[in-house]
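Mods, move this if it's the wrong board.
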Amino acid sequence: MSQQLRVLVLLRFELHTLQPLKLSHLFVGMSSLLCTHLFVGMSSLLCKLSLHLDLKQFETALAIPVSFSCRFSYSDCSSDFTNFGYRSVVLRDIQRSDPSTQEATKVPKARESEETESGSAGLSDGSDIKVTQPLLKATDWFITEEEIVESRGGVPRDGLQTYTTGNKVTVYTAANEFFSAVVDDFSASKEGDRVMYTGWDTCVIPFEADVDPTGAKTGFDVMFKGIVERGGSVNLLSWPNFLLASQNTNARDAINEIPPSKVNGAKAVYLFDDRLPLVASSHHQKTIVIAANKSTGKDDHPISYVGGIDLTNDRWDTIYHNNTAIREAANIPFRNKGWMDAHFRIHGPASKEVANNFLQRWNSDYKPCQGLEDDLLSFDNPDYEKLPPIDYASSNTSSKLGNQSIQIVRTFSCTYKHYKEFAPRGEQSLFKARLKALRNAKNFIYIEDQYFIYVPELLDALMEVLPRIQRLIVLVQPPDTLLKASGYEKYLYEMIGPMKEKFPNKVQIYTTKKDLDIYVHTKLVLIDDVYVSLGSANWNRRSMTSDSELNANVIDDETVKSPDGVTVLKLARDMRIRKFVEMTRLSYEELDAMKFIDAADQFKVAAQDASTILTDFSVKDHTYYITFVDIFREQVDPQEICTFSGSGSTREVE
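Not the wrong board. Structure tokens:
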């Protein structure tokens, strides 16, 4: 074809089952009218679809919206979906363009650093840069109360402090460590305890796949049932994930069918929460809280979990990622053979804030899943009651349990009108905190992220500090076919391209070896062996401005001397070394003795070693990127920028 089309397509599918599931408003970008092998998750399976277009109906009418026909072929689907068909396909926003008149796709230009670099400086690999003493104080890294209020459109934040001190933080760099800890804490629950969970996804799976593959002792349903039987209450909030409807409704039913406790009548209630601004939005927070019903102890605090791991399938794995047989025996694998992630366990006043975040969502006057269309009634919620606040006599700001200061940061949409009790103008404290932390970097930045796609402000911050730091190391999950069809490969290129072009030897980008099929799901930013940010937020615009997210940003009080001759913080350095062990397969002791630049170079060695999980990753510019126009990006990765009048009576969204 001599001409190219910019196409946005609204696909509406219907599954002809007893309870049809409509995938409405699924936007798919097409290049040269070609869509092949779209991967769409249906219920608990992955169906491979091929889309074929009949162009005859709009050969002469490309300037206006038209309908057109298509046919689908499908394979690898369960018997439940053998009658899969399409309802309608509508072509929108079609523009005819000639390549000769189109400007080539450009890599976004970040604002230039105030420092000017020579060509040799841009080619530096960081080894010529002297390590400098990083900032160590929590107040240097955390955003201020004024900045938090600003991130909320001028509305103060109730139930959460600016930051808390004296927390005891345990770091889990592999999912099996997290699940075993959850089993221990759930098993230790007693009468009156309250367990609260927020998640993106759930599934009835064993928590300890290696020792209990059937889930008879540590299954999702068994663990929560045990809490209730001992007189504890259970409350879960989960996003109604329509792509994984079956496993989530099964988990919902398993929880809501738990009978009230014979000890005190305590109940288990699972709710789906759809209170979001856009069809593409999701509730993405991943937290657990174990709190007493009432505590009078002067330094007694709840326990919470904050990180990237949901209580669902695919997740259980070890740092060695060699557990295929164990995972399969426990029915853990869904889409992937392995899983990379991390999570915090927090004991201290910060856990009160995680609890309050849950209670704010649960107790909102605007109830979730109201007015559902008939084909989404599988996400209907039971009747439920508001929950009382947590009742602790201990300080809300400090403790002597541990050595870590924590700032809990969040994202709530500023365009959504039903967060009126706790975020009437939204919250972007997570975004603001990330920008401040990146700009504080003096020596290195280490990132693990599921997406790492273009966010203009984050790219600017990295370009600002790259001249002075030794390395930026990023481990990313390559976009699959569906994400490529949503423009994510282009957005990944827009994030990486400018940095690799200007600092080719400082910016190290990796993923996992394709044949190992280990999914990178971590949401981690670690800077200078001092600062750690871990939680649910991905490196994309949605997580920064629109989806509900929660991260814990941690600064340790305990210092250690690094081989680089500077003082750093124990928790951050320990977590970084453990992650480097996972990637390089070197021992903890070997990496602990290395200067950072030498440890970073071991990634290059590991990427060429067949025995490691690591491989180099690069993304190139492609002609088809031009098909993903801004209006399309606004659907798949929206960035919300709100301004408000002084009274808050009017609201503008840019």
